Structure formats: C-alpha cells, structure tokens
Amino acid sequence: MGQSAKRSTLSFVGTGDSLGVPRVYCDCPVCAEARATGANLRLRSSALLETPEGPLLLDCGPDWRRQMETLGCRRTERVLLTHAHIDHIGGLPEWADACRWLGTKGRAYAPASVFDIVRRMYPWLESQLSYEAIDDGWSFGGWRIAPWRVNHGKNGHAYAYRFEGSSFNWAYCPDSIGLRAEQKQPLFGLDLLVLGTSYYREEAAYETRSVYDIAEAAELLAEVKPGLTRFTHMSHGIDVRAGYPLPPRAALAFAGMRIELAAR
Ligand SMILES: [Zn+2]
Ligand SMILES: [Zn+2]
Hints:
With 264 residues, the protein is of the alpha/beta class.
C-alpha cells in the first residue's frame, strides 16, 4: 500500500467523558482546577488520524466545532463513529450544516446499526452526510479498519476499531467495560491501545457503570499486553496532577498528544 514511506499520526483532540471536565454542576477539586488553570480541562473524546490518504476524525461529539478551531482545521471530510451516544455524535448536525455551506458532502463511517440510531435522532442530516456502513471493515490510508462490538455496561454496547497496518497495529476503544473473552480478542497483538477509562477507581455499583476504570484496565492490559496504552474518556474522577501509579507503558492522554503510528 506504500504507506511505509509516508506515516500516519494520531492526535488526541478530546479526552473527556460524556459530560466533559469541568462538569457544569460540579465544584469538586478537579472541576475547580479545570476552571481555574485548566490542566484537567477535557472536551469530549475524539481523535484525529492523519494518513497519506487524508484525515479521518474519530467520533464527532458536541465539542466538534471548538476542537476543529483548536486544530486549525477548517474542513472535516470523514468521520468514523464508535456509537450513537451524544458525546460521540452530538457534533454531526453542526458538521452537516458546515457541509451545506461548503456545498460538500461529508462521509461518516460506522456499522449500519449506528446509523439506524443516528437517523432516528437527527432525521435531516443525510442531505449533507453520506453514511457508509462498514460492518465488514474498511481500508483507508494504509489501514485495514475493523469494527467490533464491545460491552458498554448499563449503556448496552458500543463499537471499537482495530487498525492494522504493514508494521503497526492499534485499536481505539473509548467506551467499554467488562469485555467478554471474545470481545478481548482484537486487543491482542497491539502496538498501541487507546482505551477509555472514566475514573481511576469508580465507586458506583458495577451494574450502573458503563466504562472501565484504570484499576480494572490494569488487569485487562496485563492480559492483552499492548505495546503502549493511552487512556482517554476521563471524567472528573481522574486528576492529571495526582501522579497515579499506572500500568507499564501506559499514560493519560491529553488534547494535543500526538503519536506516530509506526514501528520503532
Ligand atoms: Zn462516551
Ligand atoms: Zn457511550
């Protein structure tokens, strides 16, 4: 595919949970710090994959407009969606409107069942967006991209994506918890895992939860052994100043963190 000469990079543009940090209603120390100095300020989770074939935005949440401004990115042509929760698709109406003003048609990629929900939520978008069902996978930018269904706890299920390149494999899995054995299979043999962890340790009853915490993620990582791990989808239950013990080769992601997707 010739991508060995030209490399892809992944940039985080948002690393927050569904409400972002600070939470509007909250005065906890993490939210207060996010308002005052901003180390913990986190927009809703999204990332930009830049490839030799062009950029691909991973999820399009309600902070899409601000994230594009921060990136200095005036156009979004392609978006890959993990599931139809507001924090992952809430920017679609604005993106569609931007396409209308530009006279273009955006392309959104996801398993067909995600678009069934998007159509019910925003029935007017398809004049400006084309929905590409990729249940059987998709090749783009030198990557073979395969979705798989992951447990999302009390929220049902979401999808995650495995990206296979000529010399580097990685996965984007922002919203999952308690993966069953067959759901863990695509996490083996990864050079990089981007995993959502809402809290360091979440005290709420397990049946009310929907995303891994870092303590549980440590057990998952010990099993699937990715080369690198970056945590995203972090709520006000994670303080970047805390210096938590993290699993080997794992780190908290932040907006602006950039990773070269190539074997070293
Ligand atoms: Zn989410
Ligand atoms: Zn979700």
